[in-house]
Amino acid sequence: MTTDQTSIGSKLSAWWHRTFVDLVQQLQWSYLPPLMVYFAAGVSGLTSVVGAFFLKDYLDLSASFVAGLAFWAGIPWILKMPLGHVVDLFWRWKSLLILFGASLITLSLLTMYGLVTAPALMSSFMPLEDWYVVALLLAPSGYAIQDVVADAMTVEAVPKVDQSGAPFLPEETRAQHTTMQTLGRVSIISGFAAVAAVNIWIFSGTEELQESERLALYGQVYLIALTIPVLSVSGVVLHSFIQRQLIKCGHPPHTPDEATEVKWSILLGGLAFVVLSIVLGTADFEFAQETVFAVSLTVILYLMSRLLKELEPAQAKALIGTATVIFVFRAVPLPGPGLTWFEIDELGFDEQFLAILALLTSMLALLGLIVLRPFMATRSIAHVVVLLTIAAGVLALPNLALYYGVHEWTAAHTGGVVDARFIAILDTAVESPLGQIAMVPMLAWIARNAPVQLKATFFAVMASFTNMALSASSLSTKYLNQTYVVTRAVTNPETGEVTSTADYSQLGYLLISVAVISMIVPLATVFFVQNSRFRTSE
Q1: Per-residue pLDDT averaged across 235-239, rounded?
Q2: Which residues pair with 425 in a beta bridge?
Q3: How far is the C-alpha of 118 from the C-alpha of 95, rounded, in Å?
Q4: How far apart are CA 217 and CA 223, in angstroms?
Q5: What CATH number does domain 27-160+168-252+277-285 carry, 1.25.40.10, 1.20.1250.20, 3.60.70.12, 3.40.190.10?
Q6: What is the DSSP string of 348-382?
Q7: 298-537: what fold?
Q8: Residue 496 burial (CB < 10 Å; 0-12/13-18/19+)?
Q9: How confident is the model at residue 151 (pLDDT cuts 50, 70, 90)?
């Protein structure tokens, strides 16, 4: 064996150890409980395929309305601010918050079960579209509450001292928090992958099912999904048990040195925001979403300015730059539901194949998280976002290829091998995982630097700011769908009457606009931030 071959072998061995072996070696039992809550959030994707088909076939809601509905569904995630402070104030009773979140998730699943199995009965009380909106708003409320508790649990899960009782060095603590946050994203995406595999099995051989049989199968999926709240509740119970055992073994508890002071501005501000959102959401006001977004962003920026005073000036500037880059990356528009409708109507994608796409997407994201973990632990968030932005641009190409019929040409020249489904395997349209990867360095930074007495509050305020980006994404998606209108065929499940016809002539312009904006805006933001006083090397 030559010297060069030996050198290459050594480098590959070092990379394998740094990427995979080191991750396994850093696993600890204390990490498991928050990972269970995160996994439950990923398992929520079990109903995504069923929900997409039911929405497309039976609910007469426009693409722009559905995109706008995503804005309201994101409101609970913005409320992580007051929820995080509540967790700090009543940390010993966090299990009650998990139970409350689990109850909301259960109500959402049972509502959707009633919709797909007894639409006539449900419509006698309220239109099906209204029931769907209620279910869509209940679920994220439950998941947001549980996510707040899980975020704080990740801080508590990382030990302060080693087995001999000696405190960890700062670089060791950074590596552990990066690993914890990476595993959190891994758990969420693993949940996506697991339920995608379940969906593949559930919808195997269902092509010939009648409408009533198909709806009954949808109902079974929602009943299976009731395992989600059970999983998250089990996680917090296990967390309490493990923390008690660690304290018995001499590990110091993750408790503040002094009692957490009640910040009434956060609690009352959160309550006022809830009232404002409900009033505007139920009123016939054209700019309700924009008003809620502007008010909530103003409040979050104010709270951030107050919390940044808890940090050193250099840390505060770095965090501002980091948060700005992440915000813009997550705020870019998405195609909206029209792309999925096109794949179902024009390309013939069924439930099982969409589940296969979701599984492949999740597995690739999982691999990406593990492979990029050493990169994220040593490089700044600016480097990570540039890499992910370029990847997003490349992954947008299969969508355009499918819309403009490239699959017809490739199928004709490859004996039918490279057809629409072959190309779609390269596509991540079902659910983009890149935002999960981008959040890891940000979450690790917060977990590492947040003041102990305000750990959940600090975590929640910064997370709320980045979650605001998803609301901005929903708004921009709605605007694009209002500009480029996409419609699909809709059949009333009670009467069988066709209430809407399909028109995908504007979808190409929509996909091109999304791809261009998603590439140019994040890269420009990174350039300006890195050439300003808010330059981040974190």
Answers
A1: 79
A2: none
A3: 34
A4: 10
A5: 1.20.1250.20
A6: ---HHHHHHHHHHHHHHHHHHHHHHHHHHHHS-HH
A7: Growth Hormone; Chain: A; (1.20.1250)
A8: exposed
A9: confident
Domain positions in the chain: 27-160+168-252+277-285, 298-537
What does the pLDDT look like over 396-406, one tens digit per residue? 787 788 888 88
pLDDT of residue 286: 73
E strand or H helix at 427:
none
What tokens appear for 125 in the block? 């009380």
Write out the DSSP string of 41-98.
HHHGGGGHHHHHHHHHHH----HHHHHHHHHHHTHHHHTHHHHHHHHHHTGGGHHHHH
Encoded amino acid at 453, one letter: Q
Looking at every residue in the chain, the average pLDDT score rounds to 75
Mean per-residue pLDDT, 303-310: 76
Greatest mean pLDDT among 255-259, 303-307, 358-362 = 303-307
C-alpha neighbours within 13 Å on the C-beta side of residue 242: 19
For residues 301 and 324, is the Cβ–Cβ distance under 8 A? no
CA trace torsion 301, 306, 310, 312 (10° rounding): 60
* 6 neighbors 358 (Cβ within 8 angstroms): no
Q: What CA–CA distances, in Å, run from 331 to 339, 469, 519?
A: 19, 4, 12
Assess contact for 52 and 340: CB atoms under 8 A: yes
Q: The pTM is what? A: 0.66
- End-to-end distance of the chain based on CA atoms, in angstroms? 41
337: region left, alpha or beta (phi > 0 left; psi from -120 to 50 alpha): alpha
Res 130 pLDDT > 80: yes
* Sign of the C-alpha dihedral computed for residues 518, 521, 523 and 526 taken in this order: negative
Long-range contacts of 250-255 (CB under 8 A, 24+ apart): 250/165, 251/159, 251/160, 251/161, 252/160, 252/161, 254/155, 254/156, 254/160, 254/452, 254/455, 255/91, 255/452
Tens digits of per-residue pLDDT, 361-415? 767 766 766 676 666 666 667 777 787 788 777 777 877 888 888 878 888 777 7
- Residue range 149-166: mean pLDDT, rounded: 70
* pLDDT interval class at 186 (50, 70, 90): confident
Q: Among 123-127, 257-261, 318-322, whose mean pLDDT is lowest?
A: 257-261
Task: Report which of 165, 157, 152, 153 is spatially closest to residue 249, judged by C-alpha positions.
Answer: 165
